């Protein structure tokens, strides 16, 4: 059965392509945050360990929400490390930085995801895809808030 939700196939594919970048950002940020949760050390261990856990759980749920929106648009969602690596601009961390660098990298990651979110919202608004714009507006607010909270730790 053909998808008939009031958005042309070409427009659904365009939005899905942008959502795929947001999915890649989200998943990359999830992996980084989870790794930092496991490996954080230092005087703020307990608070950062707990904060990172809250954040990676939120990102895990967000990745599912974004992927399911892509599927709602009748496009297949990317789902491999290699696909995500090509789509995201969040830099992978293969080492174990100190807690300050961890926090700084996560601030940068959330800011990148916020920027990606804004791009998706603009495109979704332009074609009348209120469902995507609404969902991604929530993601934008979460990335901005998380970046602010993390950034506050470095002051």
UniProtKB/TrEMBL annotation:
Domain Ferritin/DPS, chain residue ranges per copy: 17-154
Cross-referenced Pfam families: Ferritin (PF00210)
PROSITE patterns for this protein: DPS_1 (PS00818)
Signal peptide: none
Domain of life: Bacteria
Family: Belongs to the Dps family.
Alphabetized PANTHER family for the sequence: DNA PROTECTION DURING STARVATION PROTEIN, GENERAL STRESS PROTEIN 20U
Entry protein name: DNA starvation/stationary phase protection protein
Organism: Dyella lipolytica
């Amino acid at each position: 059965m053909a998808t008939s939700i009031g958005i042309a196939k070409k427009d659904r594919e365009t939005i899905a392509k942008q959502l795929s970048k947001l999915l890649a950002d989200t998943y990359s940020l999830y992996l980084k945050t989870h790794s930092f949760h496991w490996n954080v050390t230092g005087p703020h261990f307990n608070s950062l360990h707990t904060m990172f856990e809250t954040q990676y759980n939120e990102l895990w749920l967000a990745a599912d929400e974004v992927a399911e929106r892509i599927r709602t648009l009748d496009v297949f969602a990317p789902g491999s490390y290699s696909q995500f690596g090509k789509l995201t601009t969040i830099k992978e961390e293969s080492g174990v930085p100190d807690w300050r660098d961890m926090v700084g990298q996560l601030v940068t990651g959330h800011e990148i995801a916020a920027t990606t979110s804004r791009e998706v919202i603009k495109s979704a608004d332009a074609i009348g895809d209120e469902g995507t714009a609404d969902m991604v507006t929530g993601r934008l607010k979460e990335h901005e808030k998380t970046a602010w909270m993390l950034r506050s730790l470095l002051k």
